Amino acid sequence: MRVVLNLLGLCFVALGVIGMFVPVLPTTVFLIIAAVIFARSNPEWERRIMAHPKFGPPIRAFRERGVIGPTAKIAAVSGMAVSSVIGFVTLRGVWAFVPAGVCLLCALYVLSRPSQ
């Protein structure tokens, strides 16, 4: 099971790295998930993620206090809004409303988190 969790954690790290270069793909969210997985399978890798100078502080803030910073909130909700519009324009029928519905629920969660 440990090997499976390590592989899953590495997949989330890879998604986080890809997110550094793809504007609509989040980075920190995937690294938070990777840190949670590594906490159960490889504490050293979890420590390395948590100690990262750029991504460590927001990951620690979210894990310890549920905090999502104001800049991250703006970026997340803006990205969700753009995704919702793209989904509405490109999809047909009832499917056109699905991205907006999912994004609305996610945005409500993000906005409900403390900022500090």
UniProtKB/TrEMBL annotation:
Keyword Membrane set for record: yes
Spans through the membrane: 6-39, 94-111
Keywords, ordered alphabetically: Membrane, Transmembrane, Transmembrane helix
Keyword Transmembrane helix in record: yes
PANTHER family: INNER MEMBRANE PROTEIN YBAN
Name the record gives this protein: YbaN family protein
Biological source species: Asticcacaulis currens
Lineage of the organism: Bacteria, Pseudomonadati, Pseudomonadota, Alphaproteobacteria, Caulobacterales
